[in-house]
Amino acid sequence: MVKNIQGGVAQDERGQIRFVNDFDMTDIKRFYIIKNIDTSFIRGWRGHRIEQRWLYAISGAFSIDIVKIDDWTSPFRGLNVENRIVDSADLQVLHIAAGYATAIRALEEGSELLVYSDYPVSHAPLDNYTFPLDYFVNRV
Questions:
Q1: Distance between CA 82 and CA 66 in Å, rounded?
Q2: Which of 27, 56, 117, 126 is deepest in the core (most CB within 10 A)?
Q3: pTM for the structure as a whole
Q4: What is the pLDDT of residues 7-61, one digit of tens each?
């Protein structure tokens, strides 16, 4: 399951506060920030069988290609690839449930993507599946 969690902004004479109050962080164990070298670089395909991730654009925007993996040993190359845009102006957290792989590209120079995970970094090598960038061919 992939879903957006909507946030908002409160603004007054002092400035603004961006928030996503409906984002329940109970399961979060760690976070990291992705900043790609440029807008042509695509980070992926990387999948997680049991780890969930939540993505929030701190600045700029990202194109996120997402595929639900059917077989972790040898996934079907023609699986449907969904594309989502995560844009800092939208004030949304994108939740990617366990069982998906992603390919991430910055759409603007200097974009930063905050990623939350529900497993500690010590677990990462046990649930890290990578596929060649051209592996999945059926973008919808």
A1: 5
A2: 56
A3: 0.92
A4: 999 999 999 999 999 999 999 999 999 999 999 999 999 999 999 999 999 999 9
User: In whole angstroms, how far apart are CA 71 and each of 34, 75, 124, 129?
Assistant: 27, 5, 19, 11
> What homologous superfamily does CATH list for 2-139?
Jelly Rolls (2.60.120.10)
How far apart are alpha carbons 41 and 46 in whole angstroms? 14
Among 12, 65, 14, 25, CA closest to 42? 65
Q: DSSP secondary-structure letter at 122?
A: G
Amino acid at residue number 32: Y
CA-to-CA separations, 14 to 10, 17, 20, 94, in angstroms, rounded: 10, 10, 20, 29
Q: Which residues pair with 81 in a beta bridge?
A: 67, 139
